[in-house]
Amino acid sequence: MPLTPAFEASVYKTRRDEVLRRMREMTSGPAIAIFPAMPVATRNSDVEHPYRAHSDLYWLTGFEEPEAVAVLSTQGDKPFTLFVRPRDKEKEIWTGRRAGTEGAVKNFGADQAFEIGKLGDELPRLVGSARTLFYRVGGDDPEFDSRVAKLLHALRARARAGVNAPPRIEDPGQIVHELRLRKEPRELDALRKAVQLTRKGHLACMKACRPGMHEYDLHALLERDFREGGGRGWGYYPIVAAGENATVLHYNDNCMPIRDGDLVLIDAGAEYDLYTGDVTRTFPASGRFSAVQRACYQLVLDAADACIAATRPGETIEGLHEKAVRILTEGMVKLGLLKGEADQLIKENTFRRYYMHRTSHWLGLDVHDVGSYSIDGKPRPLEAGMVFTIEPGLYIASDEENAPKELRGIGIRIEDDILVTNSGHENLTVSIPRSVKDVEAACTR
Ligand code: GLY
Ligand code: MN
Ligand code: MN
Q1: How does DSSP assign 232-284, residue by residue?
Q2: What is the pTM of this model?
Q3: What is the pLDDT of residues 143-178, one digit of tens each?
């Protein structure tokens, strides 16, 4: 794990100061916030999954080691406490260098640092002095939830001795996720680097694909290009789906043969400094779309283009979804997939037979990034600095008896990463071929 943060330490301090400012604004009396690391996940036997930091902790500290806990406190002269794994010569021989408490202070800007083994001693003191505890119950670590619950129980049990448990518990996501939703210029730089690597991988697949290859051959190219140039690898497990596999939304076996006449759907994004791209392209294995494939592809592209063109501050993700649904539904009727009036087919959700997911989600450190989608029960207006996907699709199951035979087994998604700007939008992934002509040219051998 890196012994220094990706950005200069002052970046994280500015973020923490803003979080603390908002904590004070929301509360009266002392408040603390606890951000635990992501737990290590076992893959099988004594093999672990590669470790990936928790995005909230990473955004606040730049710290990537497991078994860490960050605590922010609105009181006293040490607002930022970091609990970390101890330096350990023996363990570091096996699993690599650790920052230790010294590195936590020197490189990561902690006002004080403790070894993680001291958490049981220090946390009651920190939590016991607060009126409000910011902790995301039901987050990513149920064991830590139970640790916090036990701690609160222990504090309450000592009420007669004058010990307090904070009477108020708040979700720190209200603050941190709102801040993460609006990307800083340096975060956009990282996202652009993720997109560059993502582009390389998608282009390599379009160029290399031949009928007779397997999905895993293309997956292998993605793995290479997502690492080369300093990428961390993929930000989510890639989908490489040929033929009817493309109609399975979360297909990721990536092991089947690619046949002549198949469309290949690849949904894959590289991760750079823990920021991820999220891009889907669909291309013909043979290099040329058939007439029906082209008609379906153009419909999805029209929906994507209309949504992208409409993106500007004040527009909503809900509004864009409705736009995509209308265009796709009208197109489904034209293609003979549905019969009836678009209004009715939309009202009755009939379009979901072929378009069953939402059109957009926030994007950033997490592929389905944080931030609420509504405010006071209403769709949230987009603002400059937000990044989200536009990803309409059309999925016609191979056993869908309502569909014309020649359309069965076609799965198409086109997914781009869109930055909202003051004047409208920027499609960060526009240079990854999208039009029929550009896709076919990228597939040219
Ligand atoms: N790759 C996940 C998604 O498109 O939402
Ligand atoms: Mn997506
Ligand atoms: Mn995707």
Answers
A1: -EESS--EEEEGGGGGSTT-----SBP-TT-EEEEEE-EEETTEE--EEEEEE
A2: 0.97
A3: 999 999 999 999 999 989 988 899 999 999 999 999
